[in-house]
Amino acid sequence: MTKPHSSEDAFETIAPANDTAPPPSPEIGEAEAAAAESETVTRLEAEKTDLRDKLLRMLADMENLRRRTERETADARAYAVTNFARDMLNVADNVRRALESVPEEAAANAEGPLKGLIEGIELTERDLLKTLERHGVKKLEPQGQKFDPNLHQAMFEVPNPDVPNGSVLQVVQSGYVIGDRVLRPALVGVAKGGPKTAATGQEPAEAEADTSSGA
């Protein structure tokens, strides 16, 4: 008769089967940990680079804003009186017309009240120009200079072979600038037919040929 198996015998029979599963390798665990750590470092480096780029862009934007604000503030300060100064040019023109209305001989021989009146008008003009200059408005003095289309407006040409072609011979109306901007161009008469100015790089003979060919 067969002897029944006890529970101990069953355990002993099954137990060896469990011993066949290999234990986890410590090398595999270390490799996974190293890979995870490397991935974390890479992610943090990318985040650091991104934050650094954002910070640099923000600093550049702030610097550009600061410079633009300073420039706009300086322009506002320099050109705040533009409209007022333009209106005051009419006053300056009238003062100049009053002086030019007196003949040179009469002004030179003036005595008494007339002399005082002329001197008072001259003093008024000087003070007016100085006041405008304190606010950045300067009067142009183009007489005898080379014509500059940025500052002058030619009203007519004057044939004169004794002066360089393109020179300002006559000022019809004074011009003014405020800061780096033209407040009002000077109205001038320009020489025609003389030798070219040195800035053009042409000799007088070449200038005459240009004039004749243009005719």
Please report the distance between the alpha carbons of the first and last residues: 146 Å
CATH architecture of the domain at 152-214: Roll
Biggest pleated-sheet summary:
3 strands, antiparallel
How much β-strand is present in the residues?
5-15%
State the share of residues found in helices, binned by percent: 55-70%
The CATH homologous superfamily name of the domain at 152-214 equals: Head domain of nucleotide exchange factor GrpE
Helix/strand-derived class?
A: alpha+beta
Strand arrangement within the widest β-sheet reads 1-4-5
Give the overall shape.
elongated
**Low-confidence residue ranges:** 199-215
CATH topology (level 3) name of the domain at 152-214: Nucleotide Exchange Factor Grpe, Chain A, domain 2
Helices, by number, come to: 6
Helix and strand sequence: HHHHHEEEEEEH
Highest CATH level, the class of the domain at 152-214: Mainly Beta
The tally of beta strands, per DSSP, is: 6
Radius of gyration: 46 Å
Overall average pLDDT: 80
Description:
By secondary structure, the chain is of the alpha+beta class. Among the domains are: 58 residues; 63 residues, Nucleotide Exchange Factor Grpe, Chain A, domain 2 (Roll), CATH 2.30.22.10. The chain contains 6 helices and 6 strands, in the order αααααββββββα. The protein has a 3-stranded antiparallel sheet with strand order 1-4-5.
